Amino acid sequence: MNTRPRVIIPAAQSVVAAELIPVIGYARVSTWREEMISIDIQKSVVEDAAARRGRYVAEWIIDEDATGRNFKRKVMRAIEIVEDHERPERELWSWKFSRFGRNRHGVAINLARIENVGGELISATEDVDAKTAVGRFTRGMLLEVAAFESDRAGEQWKETHELRRRLGLPAAGGRRFGYRWYPRRIPDGRGGWAVQEERYEVLPNEAELAVDAFQDYIKGKTGFGKIAERWNDLGFLNTRGAPWQDQGVRGYMDSGFTAGLLYVHNPEAPCGDPAGCKNAEHYTYLAAEHESVINGDEWDNYRDMRTVRRNTPRRALSPVYPLAGLVRCGLCGSAAMNHQTRRERGYAYRCGARARRKVQHDAVWVRRTVVEGRVLEWLVDLRKEIDDIVAGKIAVPKPRREPDFDKKRKKLQREIEKATAAMQRAFEAYTLGDVSRDVYLSTRAKHEDRRNEAQRQLDELPSPDKEPPSPVPHRETVIGLLAEWDTISVHSKRVTLGRLIRRVEIRPDDDVTVVPVWAPADPPLKKGPGRPSYRPE
């Protein structure tokens, strides 16, 4: 029997995860789904490319519906992992470099954070060795192209939004409570699209609820929470199909859509980030094409009531007494509280902080009738003062300006701007690797001292005189309040007084002082032991 020699073929060495290098995987799908590459496809491509280079993805960071134009994303968590010296991952893998970000400044700063700890950003589909000069140049060009595409798309969307606003339409379209939305494109039933005129038409049932909400709010009968509760009880949901909440009602009513307006960011406002701007002064209202459900007077009254209620303490929104929330202790600045007797509620005002033993000073206790009487006397004197100002019997001082101070103020402001710009240039140079950390820190300290010194000198300069505030614009309010003092409701009286009075200070011996809203602002009070947390407005 012939026997053949056996040939033993050794088994191929398997690569286990322990022998691979762990990395962090990052995937992002834009808000507008550009390129339509799903998260699953990105993860599959990254994992295959990493395995070919002896890596495995130890942890995935996913950003869904996230724009690359800023870094307010979960990708910051991936950067923190790379910077963590207790974690072994030093590489951040993505499908393309553009997934990391499309903002030039943000990419430079966060890429520097990765590389400063020996990390690296790697693209699974773009074979670039960023450790070489050519590789860094190539990566920079790819990131620049991504930023260019983002800017181009942003400009197109901006032009589209501006065109829609000129046509009197909301920038992003969508449903609005109280209206039926007819979008421009609708399915034609044959797999295609039909085009129609985009418009909004009033829905009577929802519009009636909106009108009632505005009227009740103007009268002070309700708030946003109560409106939301009422709409939910009646079975009306918001445009997303969810129950109403007070924040949603507030945003809906403040938007001005029911008044035939569009709430938009003012293109003239000096703002570097219009999309994320939260400064109310940078927004304005534009006329829209849809039919309004409330008239202009109701909208103006709503805006006035919003201003009044914004500056009114919560307990004073449904007042029992006309000065609710306005009376303060003149010794410590804390809110006054009502003191009641066995026979009469709200008999007097006293210092609330002293009553709770939070402060120690002389007793402050003044009868409510005395305080309200002094306020009425103040209104009578105020009407006479306004009449004298209008008649020219009282001369209002004109503001004085010192030319030397104006020149010095402008010089110091320029110095602050130069120092701030120098600090920003130093930071950019450091993030790009042009200067060392020690050079950056010393440069920053030098310009920071320079800026702080200029700011100190600027703060010491006397503030420029402005047009002195005057009670004259409140003349009609004062006359109307005095004429209806005995007949007006407590709530209406409290609202009207809130437009004239910042606070009423009470002190021992029935000393009552009325501080009007046009009085100079008070210096801020420092908090300390035994002092209540109150800062006069």
Detail the topology: elements first, then pairings.
Blueprint: E1 21-29, H1 39-52, E2 55-64, H2 75-83, E3 91-94, H3 97-100, H4 104-116, E4 120-123, H5 133-166, E5 179-182, E6 185-187, E7 193-195, E8 199-202, H6 204-218, H7 224-233, H8 246-254, E9 261-265, E10 283-287, H9 296-310, E11 327-329, E12 336-339, E13 348-351, H10 352-355, E14 365-367, H11 368-391, H12 403-431, H13 437-460, H14 475-483, H15 490-500, E15 501-507, E16 511-516
Parallel strand pairs: 1-2, 1-3, 3-4, 11-15
Antiparallel strand pairs: 5-8, 6-7, 9-10, 12-13, 13-14, 15-16
Helix pairs in contact: 6-9, 7-8, 11-14, 12-13
Rg of Cα set: 33 Å
User: Could you please say which CATH topology of the largest domain applies here?
Assistant: Rossmann fold
Distance between the termini: 111 Å
Overall number of strands: 16
Query: What structural class do helix, strand and pairing data support?
Result: alpha/beta
According to CATH, the homologous superfamily of the largest domain is: Resolvase, N-terminal catalytic domain
Q: Please, how many domains?
A: 4
- Just name the CATH architecture of the largest domain: 3-Layer(aba) Sandwich
Number of DSSP helical runs? 15
Main-sheet strand order equals: 2-1-3-4
Strand proportion, as a percent range, falls in 5-15%
Any idea what the shape is? globular
Features:
15 helices, 16 strands, 537 residues, globular, 4 domains, Hect, E3 ligase catalytic domain fold, alpha/beta, DNA strand exchange activity, 42% helix, 4-stranded parallel sheet, 3-stranded mixed sheet, Rossmann fold
